[in-house]
Specification:
Layout: H1 25-46, H2 54-71, H3 77-95, H4 100-113, H5 116-123, H6 125-134, H7 144-224, H8 229-257, H9 264-274, E1 278-283, H10 290-310, E2 316-322, E3 326-333, H11 342-346, H12 352-362, E4 366-371, E5 377-384
Parallel strand pairs: 1-2
Antiparallel strand pairs: 2-3, 3-5, 4-5
Helix pairs in contact: 1-2, 2-3, 3-4, 3-6, 4-5, 4-7, 5-7, 6-7, 7-8, 7-10, 8-10, 9-10, 10-12
């Protein structure tokens, strides 16, 4: 049994009786004061001409208890005030039944503020006080049955209101948690989209600028060695092609972000031609979902760029296998030349392999990368088809 009130110091007063249904706190207090005034007036005008001292004192005590509840009595004091108010009303009932107004209201407050057992114990203060006050008037305590019935009716009304409030709180909590979950999902989606945009921006700029850095190094080497003018022009034209390719990649990224699909063969062929890598396409060629194609393209692009930076002059090969359930890609290079420029090896942010792995895993695949027995390097990835891109040619 708990006698700790649910009323909290920083909460609005829950109200007495029907006033608890009024949302505005000032209007609620005003209605409670009006209820108190009406109850006092009814009891005063119906008391007999010579009521004695007990009934007027009990009426004053009940009114003060009601005022204490209006004033915002908190915590365990609510139990004492409710019990006093319930008992005072029952004492008044010995002289006039209108005193049971206070008993019923106190029982209702107990049911709202406490658990059922504690509320029942507090409500018994009314019948007990009625019995004690009625003893001088005869062997049987007169209106005991009426007093008990009013206390039970107050308990029932308070319990009903408490259940209604609890359901409303549970509904509010469920709605709040649902809203929080929706906000968390929206935030996660926004974060994912930001990461995706950031990754695409990184890939477009990093690979284009990385390739330009390599090309400018080659042009600088030719210029320092007094290479023929034709070779310089060829390398400069290749630099222009790299810039054009970067713009194409930016457009491709935009198409992928919009969910547009694109044929993979032409893109991969042009990419491998740009990096002077051997390309082998195995299996039935087909259009892929934009995000799968973008993952495949970026993986190949990153691997070729790494090979150019870390193993310049080595032979690079790309194998793409369109299997029945997934597409696999393997990018490998032979042992790097011993005189590879150190500046190229040190370029980049060091996040290429991590970025490749994250991109492939996001597409539902897996990636392995590591050295080969002949001193080269190999990157292998598997990306499963979506339902509409299965290897059996269906597009459901």
């Amino acid at each position: 049994m708990s006698i700790t009130s649910r009323f909290t110091p920083d909460a609005d007063h829950p109200g007495i009786g029907l006033s608890g249904m009024i949302p505005d706190p000032r209007a609620r207090v005003a209605v409670m004061l009006v209820g108190l005034g009406v109850s006092i007036w009814i009891n005063v005008v119906t008391l007999p001409a010579d009521p004695g001292i007990v009934a007027p004192v009990a009426l004053a005590v009940a009114a003060l208890a009601w005022l204490a509840l209006i004033a915002g009595t908190r915590g365990g004091h609510v139990a004492a005030v409710a019990a006093v108010m319930c008992a005072a009303g029952a004492v008044i009932a010995v002289t006039d039944t209108n005193g049971l107004i206070f008993t019923g209201v106190a029982a209702s407050i107990s049911a709202v503020a406490f658990d059922p057992v504690a509320a029942l114990v507090l409500a018994t203060a009314g019948p007990v006080a009625h019995c004690l006050a009625a003893i001088p008037h005869g062997p049987f305590p007169g209106r005991l049955l009426t007093t008990a019935a009013v206390a039970l009716a107050g308990l029932a009304a308070g319990a009903s209101r408490r259940e209604t409030e609890q359901r409303a709180r549970r509904s509010a909590l469920v709605a709040t948690e649902r809203r929080r979950a929706e906000l968390a999902r929206a935030q996660a989606a926004l974060t994912g989209e930001r990461n995706r945009l950031g990754r695409e921006l990184h890939d477009v700029l990093a690979h284009t600028l990385g390739a330009l850095s390599i090309q400018l190094t080659a042009i600088d080497t030719l210029a320092r060695n007094d290479a023929p003018r034709e070779k310089l022009i060829t390398q400069i034209e290749l630099g222009h092609e790299l810039v054009s390719r970067g713009l194409d990649e930016a457009r491709q990224a935009v198409r992928a972000l919009r969910g547009e699909s694109a044929p993979p063969a032409a893109q991969l062929e042009r990419l491998c031609e740009l990096h002077q890598a051997e390309l082998e396409l195995v299996g039935s060629r087909r259009e892929l979902d934009a995000d799968i194609m973008l993952a495949l393209y970026r993986l190949t692009q990153e691997a070729l760029t790494n090979a150019a930076k870390h193993a310049p002059g080595s032979r690079v090969s790309v194998r793409v296998d369109f299997g029945p359930q997934d597409v696999t890609v393997q990018v490998g290079n032979t042992r790097p030349a011993p005189d590879a420029p150190a500046a190229l090896r040190a370029s980049g942010g060091g996040f290429g392999l991590q970025g490749m792995r994250e991109r492939v895993e996001q597409a539902g695949g897996d990636l392995q990368a590591g050295p080969t027995p002949d001193g080269g390097w190999k990157v292998a990835a598997r990306i499963p088809y979506r339902q509409g891109n299965r290897g059996d040619g269906s597009n459901r």
